[in-house]
Amino acid sequence: MTIDQVETSEGATKGLLVTEAAVEKVLEVRLEEDEPEKLGLRVQIIGVNGPEFSYDLSFESIDDALESDVISTIGDLTILVPEESYENLNGATLDLPSNPMQGGLVIRNPNRPNMLDGEELELTGTTGEKLQQLLDRHINPSLAAHGGYAELVKMEGTAAHILMGGGCQGCAMSAATLRQGIEVMIAEAIPEITEIVDLTDHEAGENPFFD
Q1: Per the CB 3.0–4.6 Å rule, which of 80, 89, 187, 189 could disulfide with 42?
Q2: Cα dist. 49→43, 55, 113, 146 in Å?
Q3: What domains sit in the chain, N to C, each tagged with a CATH number?
Q4: Residue of 177, 158, 181 lying closest to 168 (CA atoms)
């Protein structure tokens, strides 16, 4: 099964955590498989969707696990995490959605992909102009995948005042995206910016992209 929606949490604990509710749900679904007791749940990162990772969950024979897999057991459930996914799943939690009307599972992951990875940055002009170029060319195209955008409102010295809009307004995830994603990219690309002031009303918005 594939996770189509991702929620974010602040907590970071070693390894991938799985809540009791998620374990019960996975074991319930596993009963529909042949020889369920021989199957583990493989959790892996399969790509990037804007400012978030994309995930895939699938049942797999425990006997077919790779030597490089990170394997853990929670009650009657065995979790298989590929070595290449482990670092970016460190501190993430597999859980049921907070909205009881939503089916499936969610991963709340404090980690973010580096949206500047492989990008060639050519930023020129004043600090504000550099930041505007970074937003236009590199950050907003990724946020657009979630129907959102980040806008530079003003520069005050070395502090950048940023407003997130579109699908990011009213989004419970957008505050974390700003702190953990955009701030990191700005610090890497424009080190002269020492502070990000978030002007977004994270409680507003009638139809946020994520609940």
Answers
A1: 80
A2: 17, 10, 9, 8
A3: 2-108 (2.60.300.12), 127-198 (3.30.300.130)
A4: 177
